[in-house]
Amino acid sequence: MWVEQALAHPAELLIDHANCEKKAASTALNLMFRYVDKPELLQKMSRLAREELRHFEQVTAIMQRRGIAYRGLSASHYAQRLRQHVRTTEPGRLVDTLIIGAFIEARSCERFACLAPHLDEELGDFYRSLLKSEARHYRDYLTLARQYADAPIEDRIAEFAVIEGQAMIEDDSEFRFHSGTVDGSAKLA
């Protein structure tokens, strides 16, 4: 189970968590640069990028207090497996990217909630504190996807749910934050 793997790899958990926060900020910034004509997206992604960078700073501060050096880790294949299915024409490309963002945020929420009760007080409290913002990010991504789609997106969300479920269970050679299954399952609405 993922929780046992996470507890067995505390340094990798924190390093990969920091990497995920940095990548989330980068994704938000990339969307801002690519879609300059979408004011609501610009505002939501600006806020999201700032929050994700703040989370990165918080994770690296915890690592420093625990004597864990920030270093490069190979990336999980989870997000790459999702991005392989992004359409190449607009607005499909944007909508798919936003749906993937929602799945990643929902999955992160699930991971924080499952892991927090098993951690020391500092880290458990920190992970619980992230739940509200991660849930808001998930909702923001879905709201934007619906806003910019040229048709209802429920079928596309269902397609990505299957893809995401498979991406999560496909084996990664090393433990990473989004690798492996937990008892729950992130659901999108």
UniProtKB/TrEMBL annotation:
InterPro entries to which the protein is assigned, alphabetical: Ferritin-like, Ferritin-like_SF, tRNA-Hydrxlase_MiaE
Database matches in Pfam families: MiaE
Signal peptide limits: none
Domain of life from the UniProt record: Bacteria
Name recorded for this polypeptide: tRNA-(Ms[2]io[6]A)-hydroxylase
